[in-house]
Specification:
Helix content: 25-40%
Distance between the termini: 44 Å
Structural class: alpha/beta
Strand content: 15-25%
Number of helices: 5
Strand order of the largest sheet: 2-1-3-4-5
Largest sheet: 5 strands, mixed
Length: 132
């Protein structure tokens, strides 16, 4: 599995937790630098950020990819839209959470969010105007 990390560096403990939760080994971690200019449009910067990830178009569409999204919500939203366009589906994402009472602050893997499964389940809750 390819892990694309758009956030802070991951610890060995976090990587082990990801492997345990997914049941797959992380074969490669890609971590493009995420630095945005607030004075410039974010969509263009996200496209350039993903262009900087060293994957071919075939790899984008065929490799098992797991994503650690950036914490800034606007960038994360645009990133998911751009990734969906390149992958053809929503990628699974790692959710980190603070470890309670940890000094200094630390983060642990909370869950793996299967965004495509969540999207597919949401489709079953859509109502047709004819149903009302």
């Amino acid at each position: 599995m390819l892990l694309i990390n758009f956030s802070h560096p991951l610890t060995d403990e976090q990587l082990a937790a990801i492997e345990k939760r997914t049941g797959q080994a992380v074969a490669k971690t890609l971590a493009p630098p995420v630095q945005f200019d607030n004075a410039q449009p974010f969509a263009e910067q996200v496209a350039r950020l993903i262009d900087a990830v060293d994957l071919t178009p075939v790899e984008w569409q065929t490799a098992p990819i797991l994503v650690v999204p950036p914490s800034l919500n606007y960038i994360a939203l645009l990133l998911l839209a751009e990734l969906h366009g390149r992958l053809g589906y929503f990628p699974a994402c790692v959710r980190l959470r603070p470890v309670a009472d940890a000094l200094p602050p630390r983060f642990e893997v909370a869950e793996i969010l299967n965004l495509q499964a969540i999207r597919d389940a949401a489709r079953t809750r859509r109502h047709s105007p004819m149903e009302e």
